[in-house]
Amino acid sequence: MRPSPRLFSGGSEPLDTKHGKFLGGWGNLGSQTQKGITTYSISANRQAPLAGTLHAAVFNTWRRFKAQALYVIPPFAIAYATMNWAMEKNEYYNSKEARIHDAEAAAEATPGGPVRG
To answer: The whole model's pTM is what?
Structure first.
């Protein structure tokens, strides 16, 4: 005699592998229990996925900034001071007073005085 489809369908009845019922209820497919697989779970209303995130972000960011500050700030400060000095010197060299000063320095450097042509 062939078993009816109800016996194959599963549900809340216990498994009956002798008569061909291999499916259990929802989540229990009637197979042998797995060995070596550990499953952990936590209730959805017990989870707090963002608990402490803001606090950790602020203090972790400060800790990382403090650890790297001495490697980053001095080179940037030196580069800024050098660039500022170079820009001021360039502005002076391209000004009228620098050209006058340069002409006076060239006149003093010539052995016979200013060059007349």
So the answer is: 0.45
